[in-house]
Amino acid sequence: MKFLWTVALLSSPALLLAETKIDFNRDIRPILSDKCFFCHGPDAKNQKSDFRLDSEANAIADLGGYAGITPGDLEKSELHWRIRVEEDDVDYMPPLDSNRTLSEAEKDLLDAWILQGAEYDTHWAFKKPIRLDPPKISAKNEKWVQNPIDEFIAAKLEEEGLSPSTRATHETLVRRASLALTGLQPTPEESTQAADYAKWCDQLLNSTDYAERQTLRWLDSARYADTDGYQNDGERSNWPWRDWVIQAFHENKPFDEFTIEQLAGDMLPEADNEQILASAFNRNHRQNSEGGALAEEFFIENVIDRVETTSTVWLGLTMGCSRCHDHKYDPISQREFYQFFAYFNNTGEKGIGKGPSANPVLATHSPLTKPSPSQQAELDAAVAETKKAQASLNQRLKTWSNGIAAAARKDSGHWTPAKTETAKVIKGGQLIAEPEGSYLFQGDNGLTNVEYRIALASNSSPITALRLDALTHPAFGKPRQLARSVNGNFVLTEIEFFATRSGKGKPEKILIKGASASYQQDGYPIDNTIDGNPKSGWAVSGKDVRAESVSAFFTLEEPIVLERKGTLEVRLKHQSKFADHNIGRFRIMTTDQENPDVRDTVGLSPKILSAIKVPENKRSQGQQKTLRDYYTTIDEPLLKARKKVAALNRKLDALGVGKAPVMVMREKEGEPTPAYLLDRGLYDQPDTSEALPRGVPEALFVGESEDMPQDRLELAQWIVAPDNPLTSRVIVNRVWRDYFGTGLVKTVEDFGSQGEPPSNPHLLDWLAVEFVESGWDLKALHQLILSSATFQQSSKVTPKLVAADPENRFLARGPRMRLDGFSIRDTALHAAGLLDERVGGPPVKPYQPEGLWNDVAGRSSIRYELDSGNDLFRKSLYTYWKRAVNPPRQIIFDSSGREMCNVTINRTNTPLQALVLMNDETFIEAARHIAARSLTEKPSNNEADRLGYLYELVTARKITTIQLETLTKNLTFFREHFASKPESAETFLKIGSTPRNESLDPIEHAAHTAVAHLVLNLDESITLE
Amino acid sequence: MNPFHEHQSLLSRRHFFGKTAAGAGVAALGSLLDQDLVAADDPFQPKGVMKEFHQPPKAKRVIYLFQSGAPSQQDLFDPKPMLNKHFGEELGDHIEMTQRVTGMTAGQSSFPMAGSIYQFNKHGESGTEISELLPHIGSIADDICLVRSMHTEAINHDPAITFFQTGHQLPGRPSIGSWLSYGLGSANDNLPTFVAMASRGTGRPSCQPLYDRLWGSAFIPTQHAGVKFMGTGDPVLYLKNPAGFDAKARRRMLDDLAELNEQKLEDFGDPEINTRIQSYEMAYRMQTSVPELTDISDEPEHVLEMYGPDVKTRGTYAYNCLMARRMAERDVRFIQLYHMGWDQHSNLQVQLPGQCRDADQASAALVKDLKQRGMLDDTLVVWGGEFGRTSYCQGKLTRESYGRDHHPRCFSMWMAGGGIRPGMTYGSTDEYCYNIVENPVHVHDLHATMLHQMGINHEKLTYRFQGRYFRLTDVHGHVVKDILAPASMG
Fold first, then answer.
1. Which of A149, A644, A795, B98 is surrounded by the most beta carbons within 10 Å?
2. Would you call A1025 an interface residue with chain B, using a CB distance cutoff of 8 Å?
3. Which of residues 442-461 of B touch A (CB under 8 A)?
4. What's this model's pTM, rounded to 2 decimal places?
5. Tens digit of each residue's pLDDT (9 = 90 or more) over A145-188
6. Is the CB of residue A31 less than 8 Å away from at least one CB of chain B?
7. How many Å apart are CA A876 and CA A307, to the nearest integer?
């Protein structure tokens, strides 16, 4: 058998291959990794076999008379036999049921490698990049070269027998650079002015459009969103961090600083607000506030999310694979995973809760939308006023308590909490008795028409009036906190009293003389509760209200006396259409006074009343506190000052320049939180026998330094240390991908063993070293690529080129790729002159199909509240990102869902995308404005000129004769079409929120709108080429 | 050709130009052993990454009736007289409680047993015991296979639903339907391959929400994601022509668009342009095919009556069930329904009857309707939630009022058609419904079985991403052979 094989080998391609030098990293590692490592790789603990092919020592070790590999000797190499034996042999590798097969070519390569000595090599990405001189190229290509990039590319093309494409037209390049850098197209004026391509690129790089576009990419990696995700998916406000990123790109903050501040800005010496804000990068993870979620479990998930995100974004590694066991392909052990984890688990966070209060949280302005100096001064003055009012509060408290004490002793002491027999809810819940005679409502959510029936027992004295205190509860909706409704407001539609004086017989309705209340909402006066009309009621919402008890007083026509077993039933009806608007917590009191004075003691609980009755010098500390706490809520000067601060803050919020709570990192002081290896990655299976020291995976620690980073700050510094083999390669690769559609390493998310080796390794390393040596200068990197002849090639495709290089990996032509959903919308709004170019600020809600949130939301009350005015037309970067229901336009055009870190870009081409462009009102409204521009901005009355201008507005190109023919035909058709249906033209022109230019003839305007809309749908309008 | 599946990303262009698309998750090829169910010219022939079935398929399509929130098995499918016998007694006195509990009942000092207030009746020849709340499902007892031994790992809704729909508790994995779409491709040329629909329960209108990811495609290209059919507005987002822009205008717009795009194709040669032209034509066909699909005026009254009074109201479960049947008739491969509101932590006696009113009649009607059309044999219907509920009461227990917390360790689901054994009850739980005592079925097993019935070996349908070969069933899952119908249903 062996003999036969040897004969067969004589004619094997392996011998032919043996003449070319095999490169382990390029030719062999990908095969071993993909086909063998799963069972013979780094995860030795979980493999059936001890034999490992990822380690040279193991591969060549003597296995008892034979070895897996005997360098230079096929016959003595078990590997060779195992892959060459018949498929049905039990020894055949990879086994048939492994779903892995080796092609003949791969088997030949492995054989040739063994014959050449089976040299192993460190994985390419774990070796420090070295800058080599650009390769020698042909004289013809020398002429084509603009910078070193092109020399590397030309050499590759020569190897493949290809030659570069011609330079694209100036017009094409101006548009291409604009779209690549800013996601926008040049306007016709800009196109005319941009005579110098290099200058135009500089101009683009200095624009805020550039910073916003780069930020958009970064947000995907940073899994930035405006909601928490998970079940409740409540709103958060991390947007000031997004603005920090915009600012950083605009200032061209060196990428190493950019990195350190985002990973550990909070730990920098004397970190300023903005550096702390930067650390929100690692708090953009989802945050669970589901009832019943366990804090320990989701704390672990948050930390692991940081590990996965950080290792993907900077290191291009799939460290998450080592959560449950050693990595199957890369030298990252499970233990090392949790050592890395230990850098990120020390913020003292709770793991569950809502984002805006999930500490550590920093209330901060956006660096881009701070208040103006005068706004800030006004706010500071108001805050100072509050402090002044607080300082002088004690004096006023004294005056108040003295003044009211007498009244309290004399008049108000008579209000006594009523003794209740029963307290029932008609349908849907129950009343729970609480201290001081109060009741708390419990029941289903979303109720309407709730009625309470409270039977009061006799207390032997006559009742002249009743008092209803609605009380606050912290669980109720803000600001009022008086009911379980969204805003804590209630509507009491009717109150009725029924007496059973002797305890027997038919209850008798008691007449009410009058009602008054401590507070009533406009349009909802207290009198509504006694008007017999179930449609009117008393409510207590209003401007500037806060959580505060309110009282209502009902004087009876005749005092009523109950016998010993008699009862007085109070019926509180809540018949409004609003859900949950029943009083959440309340108390009923009665009095026997003839003319009860209700003014001074409104809202005072028995506890306060009893404290106030005690002479000032005899009050206990508790009583003093009770009074002070209460008085703070009613002190006029303080309230006035606070109201002013609140109003100013609201004004600043409305202007988008207020402060917002941002989830940030803040290292805990004292002993670090210990990190343990979690068995199978489960939060409740820590191996507490050893608290793991912090550390980065040994295989990556290739520099000269001997000390592992000790904390998160040192980790961040290590990530951007010149020794780090991965970061610079990973980052330049992603920048490259943004220009050409595919990275030099295609698997931008995986630089490990299973990733694709670089298509042009020396170019990748050259760029990586150049990037670091430039001082991590991103704009310089962009300039380098923009100025290369490679980027400036025409992107026309010939059948020959497609056949030779379908994915354009060798770059014998320029890039051609569909724009993303953000850019597609933004370019349309820009062409229409609608795009609002304000930078930064809170997220906005542009058009989206009605009912989209409601269809799947937890509560039917969750509504998408469409913005108005210019907020409808801000860049898509600012569109509100809800994790449970993503903005439909973006997701249909392949954006990531922002639930977790994503650095890959998909580009599909589906009918749903066609439907968006065909029917979304965004594009119809934009078309209407583009049409109006073409009809008004060209002085010439020439139809061809107008259509040419229209076309140029949308595509940033000059129209061709043949295109003009089609558009003219199209215009003629729609002119006739709308002329025959003028009402359709009117309807069509009404789409969108902006007014139409009424001076334009509706038929002409509608017909041009149809043409503009057609142009917006063109392949070339939505394609970077 | 269906542009949902005509390959779109540049990678696939290799295929377009006649090279084999190597790499990305090419499933190992098995031979087609059974030509009976899906003939060679049948639209259901695999056209995705799989060019042949791994094994003879038993089902051409799946209708998954997901009951979101977790229906109570003790009150619906798994009678437990012992809970009534020991009503109010501490569960912990009768069984060792080792299952972790959620934060909602972790603080409870007492775990009293709550017997169901509902009667169970035996149904059909099989004698399957089903609750009085589900009389209609009772009437199809002989058509379904009731599995009483489901179990899962997650205890909170979000991770648990995500697990059921994607095989993983955390976001970032493709949903079941997108795996099918990726593996098998489309069976029609004017509707999506994978559709998702949601309805809100009347038993508990305020409930936990659903998320895009549940029908998303994660790292598999977007054309394999489920298309959400909406309960309001356009059934498919952006389907309808703009106001004032009629079909004639649309046709003209598309003709001129195609003309201009073809000019571009000639000039630039990028095959993506051709795909774009196709996509617009498919979009146009959908503008006709979807309204046809949703126009139920051709349904006879007696059929509508089967589904119950809500059937004509868009956004209801009954309406969605009827839509599911109409989609099945139009060769949509995977139809995913969600009915929300099955999360009865309290007031179960008020909420559960409402949920059952929504779901009972329409679920049963769908099975009957498929059967009377001869479609049940090759349509797999799956019914169930994301975990089970506790036998102890959450909150205050009275004879009239109780609630149940989450219990992942055992719960019930049922399946019908698609080569699943009818009239069968599979697996059982202990008398306190705490643990499974025989034939446990894990979420991964359910997935493996669903794929198996569709002709897919769950270990062979993979997608390579981040260097790993991902599967719906991760590295787990066994086909539950015991519940497969013995003979081919042809």
1. A149
2. yes
3. 459-460
4. 0.82
5. 999 999 999 999 999 999 999 999 999 999 999 999 999 999 99
6. no
7. 29
